[in-house]
Design brief:
Helices cover 24% and strands 30% of the residues. By secondary structure, it is α+β, with helices and mostly antiparallel strands. The strands form seven sheets. Strands 17-16-15-18-19-25-24-23-21 form a nine-stranded mixed beta sheet, with helices on both faces. It has an eight-stranded mixed beta sheet with strand order 26-28-31-30-29-32-33-27, with no helix packed on it. A six-stranded mixed beta sheet has the order 5-4-3-6-7-34. Helix 2 runs antiparallel to helix 3, helix 6 packs parallel to helix 7 and helix 8 crosses helix 15.
Amino acid sequence: MLDSLLKSLGVLSTNGKLLFKSPLAPWGVLCITAAIIAAVLLFYRRTTVPISGRTRTLLITMKLLPLLLILVSLLEPVMVTSEVTPQQGFVLVLVDDSKSMRIQDAPGRLPRFEAVKRLMTDQELLASLSGRFKVRTFRFASDAERVEDLTRLEASGGSTNIAGALSQTTQEFRDLPLAGVVLVSDGADNASQGSNDLAGVAAALKAQGIPVYAVGVGQEHIEKDIEIVKVATSKTLAAGSVTDLFVTIRGHGFPGQAVDLHVKEGTRIVRTEKVELGKDGETKRVKLSLAPESPGIFEYTVQVPPRPSETITENNQRSFLVDNRSRTARVLYVDGYPRKEFKFIRRAVEEDRQIQLASLVRVSKENRLYRQGVRTQEELRDGYPRTKEELFQYDTVIVGDVEARWFTPQQLQMTEEFVSVRGGGFLMLGGDHTLAEGGYVGTPIEDVLPVRIGGGRRGSGWGTGVVDREFRVGLTPDGKAHPMLRIAPDPDENLRHWGRLPELVGYNRVGEPKPGATVLAVDQSVDLLEGSNIILAVQRYGQGRSMVFTTAGSWRWQMLMPAVDPSHERIWQQVVRWLALSSPSQVTLTLDRESYGDREPVTIKARVVDTAYAPVNDASVWAQVTDPTGQSEAVELEWTFSDGGTYRAEYHPKAGGMHRVEVFVKSPETITARDQGGFSVAESASEYTDAVLHADVLTRLAETTGGQYVGIEQARRLPDAIKPVKRTTSMVIEKDLRDIPPLFAVVVLLLSLEWVLRRRQGLA
């Protein structure tokens, strides 16, 4: 009712509403009003001079009205109105500031980021956009960053995350009217490469009605370029061993030309190979051998010297690390009697300084045992270990010609856990009392082995029995490529060397290989209808590795070859190294990568276990990081609550080059193990891999979201292509009624008139 009265008097607008902001309750307002009325009536009840009733009523009214108006003012009256206004749309300008924008293939042979600067300033793209929209500018690489001046682009980002930049910036403006996003990039989204992140973001922007207008920078084809695409090799080697190095190389503009491929250890060239480039854009895979001359952790670089005419020279090399430390491992070898195979394997492995061999062999029917290589008088005194702590001190267990019943059920189960939980290696050799012939069918050991031993196909008797004849070991394709079976560095010479090895006699037939197992060697002369021909097979089992070598005749490789031939020793040393040197210790270091770009943080992780290899969660774990200058820094690792026994820290390198990391435990003092590793800090080459303009990616992004793709030379027409946002906003406006001059004038006027009238009537 009061609103209607005020609207009729013109105090309130037609869409206005009167509100009181005072927290005073309504009953309080009524009490105060009643008190004011009572006071005024009492004041005029008796006067010093008689007055008429009409005059008394007039005086009361003139006194009461201003007091009530003052009371209304104290209640903080406001007029609330709503106003609908059209909104101007926002346009977000995202500019790629990663290292690939340094490539000089923009119009005029300019670096890509310099061409973008010219587009924004000289060609006045920003000015044209600002005339129609509210423009907000960002630069992005791995993350997006708000910038006011796009002429300060540096093209220094180590990776490009288009999906992340679009998601981050549009989320920041989700409550504001977005007319669109202008994305200026070469389209190489290498941060989310191999995922559907960009497609997911495009679909989300389409659903929100936010179009992307993409501007492509660069050329879709590099005219002159030689690129090292990929390098693959074993990250961990045993000292003195040889491994394969695979280098994938691609050329543009140099078809059929020969280039030098250098392999460098540090700054020293250790090998140079002539490589003939394929057709334009064709990749070629080159296989080399790598044999570090001394133990340690080394940084290698594969490099093709840049040609003067190349557009991109930063992708001519790739670096990688090889861990060739001289580690040692403890091996337990158990056999049923002192046979030739035991004698020659033990002799071969004993000569390896990286292997500490302890052996246990039965020498009589009364179960008398002969120990060799033990550290103390107590070690293996009671035979095969009976506790996890005793067994888990070894890195590999080799079981020869000894039957399953020689072990207790608890020892067999403990051996399975030695591989699956502790991460140890396990090898079972052939013989008359081993595998199926030794009663291992149905035991935990059968679970560990890479082959089935309880019969062959569909549970039949196929694959059982012992073959008692001469045969020649033949390597499978997997065996030819496996570094464990590399006698000679050159692959062809290695095969010829295996062909010269003497024939062996006898092996145990086993069943089919298990899923995930790899067969490395077979009896290549057998008729498969007769049964299994597997000689050597391996597999990962739990945290460890397992192997079966079904013959007991490898001693012939030593006895029937010239005394100077090292084949037998080398094969067995590499087999045992492969099994034992990968076994984790109580402290294991893990780095999330082996190579980092400048200013990238390094995540250092360590896993700590006790002597039974159960996780330890209350340890004090530290890492010592040594940079290329020799400066060391201690970093404390914190326990990761969600992962038992795992500790983590983040380290920020201060220099480029090779860094060495050593992780150790300060407490509990019972854990004395430590682990080492390394990483390198260098300028990342990912920005220069496949660094052409990906116009197809940008076009697909623009079309999905309802936008448009243009090259940088056509970018000036974008402001006309972006549709304005048709959106209004409702604003609530509050006007304080105490501040209006008429209210103050009415109060003063009424009080003045009341005073004059009283004086004329002779009242005090």
